Amino acid sequence: MVKRLCLNACTYCKTKHARGDLASYSVAELVDRAIQSFQEGVCEIWLTSEDTGAYGRDIGTDLPTLLWKLVEVIPEGAMLRLGMTNPPYILEHLEEMAKILLHPRVYSFLHVPVQTGSDSVLMDMKREYCIADFKRVADFLKEQ
């Protein structure tokens, strides 16, 4: 787990109310844990949280920075899998995320949730993105 909790305040979700604010682990802490895991024989690391894309916003960093640091320590034969992220956080780093997803030790897979196909419902849900944002993310990553 790269962080706990989420930055969003979606109308239907009680996670933030139940657990509190975003709490990211430091890049150094996560890289050290990855190195230790690889030394112990782990050959696949999954980065996950309630919204992985929001990683680092509370500690002055971001997901691409973490991913590039992790890629540096992934040994041959090992892989990195990236967990769920919402469209707004991918849009901020779209080109960089596409490059990372093309790295040979990173699975070319990204879970981007589709809550609804209606902009008005997304707005009512306070999802902080619209259908065009989702399509831009999906189309751009598919083209890569």
From TrEMBL:
EC number(s) on file: 2.8.4.5
One family name in Pfam for this protein: Radical_SAM
Catalytic activity: N(6)-L-threonylcarbamoyladenosine(37) in tRNA + (sulfur carrier)-SH + AH2 + 2 S-adenosyl-L-methionine = 2-methylsulfanyl-N(6)-L-threonylcarbamoyladenosine(37) in tRNA + (sulfur carrier)-H + 5'-deoxyadenosine + L-methionine + A + S-adenosyl-L-homocysteine + 2 H(+)
Domain Radical SAM core: 1-144
Gene3D superfamilies named in the record: tm_1862 like domain
Function: Catalyzes the methylthiolation of N6-threonylcarbamoyladenosine (t(6)A), leading to the formation of 2-methylthio-N6-threonylcarbamoyladenosine (ms(2)t(6)A) at position 37 in tRNAs that read codons beginning with adenine.
The protein, known as: Threonylcarbamoyladenosine tRNA methylthiotransferase
